[in-house]
Amino acid sequence: MKIKKIPVIDFTKCRKCKKCIEICPSQAISVSFNNCCAKCIKYCLTMEVPCHPKEIIFKYELCNACGLCLEICSENAISWFTPKNVE
């Protein structure tokens, strides 16, 4: 499966209002208390914006890239990222 784009959070801008969690129709965004994310090898190491697994996370296998989280974020903390040949 080739992923075209995924949403990522810039935690320097995120105020943790959780509006993105509330609006997500596929429940692909959640708060994690896990300090080790299994997706790090696949996604996070290639991202310009580092992942913070103790904060808000995306479950990319559930994300349909609808963009509602980008629209609702008043801090512009969520943006699109295109991974390089992630399979």
The CATH class is: Alpha Beta
The total of helices stands at 2
Enter the CATH topology name: Alpha-Beta Plaits
Largest sheet: 2 strands, antiparallel
Low-confidence stretches: none
Mean pLDDT rating: 80
Question: Main sheet: which strands, in order across?
Answer: 1-4
Distance, first to last CA: 5 Å
- What structural category do the secondary elements indicate? alpha+beta
* Range of strand content: 15-25%
Written account of the structure:
The chain is an alpha+beta fold and 87 residues long. It has one domain: 2-Layer Sandwich (Alpha-Beta Plaits), CATH 3.30.70. It has 2 helices and 4 strands; from the N terminus they run βαββαβ. The protein has helices at residues 19-23, 68-72, and strands at 6-9, 29-31, 56-58, 78-81. The strands form 2 sheets. The protein has a two-stranded antiparallel ribbon. It has a two-stranded antiparallel ribbon with strand order 2-3. The chain is globular, with a radius of gyration of 12 Å.
Task: Indicate the topology.
Layout: E1 6-9, H1 19-23, E2 29-31, E3 56-58, H2 68-72, E4 78-81
Antiparallel strand pairs: 1-4, 2-3
